[in-house]
Amino acid sequence: MNLSRIQTALPSKPDNELASTNVTGQIGCVPADPRPVRSIRARRAPIGAGSRPALLVVVGLAAFVSIATATSCDTVAAANGATGNQEFVQEIATRLTAAYSMSYTAMYALAGGGTGTVAQLPATGQTAYTYPTGMLLVTSGRATLCTKAADRPATCEPRPSVVATSTDLARAGLVRTDSVVSLLNASALDRNSVISEHDTTIAGTSATCVTVDSSGDATDQYEVCVTADGLLGSFSGPINGASVDIMMINFRMSVSSDEFELPTASQPAVTSR
């Protein structure tokens, strides 16, 4: 059979169309090798030879394109899966960020025993963190840290910034929501993070939880749960130089003004550094 007849019988396609279509008709996957696929021309068979060599070349080309495209599709699917996980972590961070504008009071069970309370009132720019060993009051970016012990009254002192109190608060057993948001945002950019999620109920309300393992080391793993209202339902893991494990036990979408009161005047006055 004449080779020219075989080539005429086969439908011709541009090289770039061959590169983007496999034998199943799947379209849109980019080849793993971004360089353009060069056309492969069958050599004219020697006079008297059959048509088998030409057919083998054409079939071989089709198989090559199919394999290359399938590999590319698998790669894209894997990448999309990672992106989906990262987008989920970003979604949790966004839900927590929305809580910045809410007035609420939440009580948490602390890992070391006892409870801690977070009260936030955006109208005044105040957030109070109360725990067994003291209190942190944040007012429009300014921070006052109070410490107390069983055998003496509390003492309070201003701190140069809210960030400067992060380690103190973590060691006391609580964590600021914006610190958790920063941690989630960093994980959302890390394609090596292993991410899983599940739903649960915390303090009588539904919550969505995400567990992030960025290094394969259990000591670096953390879990965040956010309630349907966008509040921090729980946190467990290392943050701000300490290990924190808290679980919300009750909350209300209102705040009492006495939540922001520093220790009474009968205790030592507020001192500065």
Description:
- The protein has 273 residues and is of the alpha+beta class.
- The chain is built from five helices and eleven strands.
- The protein has helices at residues 3-9, 15-20, 52-98, 166-172, 177-188, and strands spanning 104-110, 115-121, 126-131, 134-139, 142-149, 152-159, 194-202, 205-213, 222-227, 232-239, 242-252.
- An eleven-stranded antiparallel beta sheet has the order 6-5-4-3-2-1-11-10-9-8-7.
- Strand 9 (222-227) and strand 10 form a beta hairpin.
Question: In brief, what are we looking at here?
Answer:
The chain has 273 residues and is an alpha+beta fold. The protein is built from five helices and eleven strands; from the N terminus they run αααββββββααβββββ.
- As residue ranges, the low-confidence spans are 2-82, 265-273
* Termini gap: 97 Å
The first-level CATH class of the largest domain is given as Mainly Beta
Strand content: 25-35%
Shape: globular
What is the number of independent domains? 2
Largest sheet: 11 strands, antiparallel
Tally of helical runs: 5
**Oligomeric state of the chains?**
single chain
- Trace the largest sheet across and list its strands: 6-5-4-3-2-1-11-10-9-8-7
- H-E string: HHHEEEEEEHHEEEEE
